[in-house]
Amino acid sequence: MPDTTDPVHARFGALVSHTARIWRRAVNQRLQPYGLTEATWLPLLRLARADRPMRQKDLAASLGLDGSSVVRLLDALESAGLVERREEDGDRRAKAIVLTPRGQSTVAQVEQVAAQVRDQALDGLPERDLRRAFELLEHIGRRLDADAADPE
User: Fold this and answer.
1) DSSP conformation letters of 95-147
2) Residues 6 or more apart in contact with residue 87 via CB below 8 angstroms
3) Distance separating alpha carbons of residues 43 and 151, to the nearest angstrom
4) Distance between CA atoms of residues 38 and 91, nearest Å
5) All structural domains of the chain
């Protein structure tokens, strides 16, 4: 059983969460000159990195948002010419969300800025330490996913 009075154990989750917030804030600040906020660039990244075109409910789940929030978000992204909704397999109710060419070029900008932030954040870390940290975070993520899937 871990020693929960040990500051490393007691503060680990808060540190991971805090670091993720700082990382997103750094990306956000560097994307402001392009008129992008986390509310716009994060959904674009999720769409770009998906294996196949996403539906609205899938995007909502990946962002942790409710359906009505995603409708407003997609309306704004569509008005900006970044995404479009397309019918899937002739079903007018099922709409796939796809990036437009403008959306794709915006994602390229986001990816470039995100890479700059990542490179700055990881600068000076020995490769073996980075790989070990990656393995540890993957392990923790798998454990939490397993716990969420099996509440007992």
Assistant:
1) EEEEE-HHHHHHHHHHHHHHHHHHHHHHTT--HHHHHHHHHHHHHHHHHHHHH
2) 94, 95, 96
3) 29
4) 31
5) 11-149 (1.10.10.10)
pTM for the whole structure: 0.78
Residue indicated by tokens 């917030």:
21
Nearest 5°: CA angle at 113, between 126 and 135? 35
What residues in the chain have per-residue pLDDT under 70?
A: 1-4, 90-93, 148-152
Question: What pLDDT digit, counting tens, does each position of 64-94 carry?
Answer: 888 888 889 999 999 999 999 988 776 666 7
Report the distance separating Cα 56 and Cα 22, nearest Å.
28
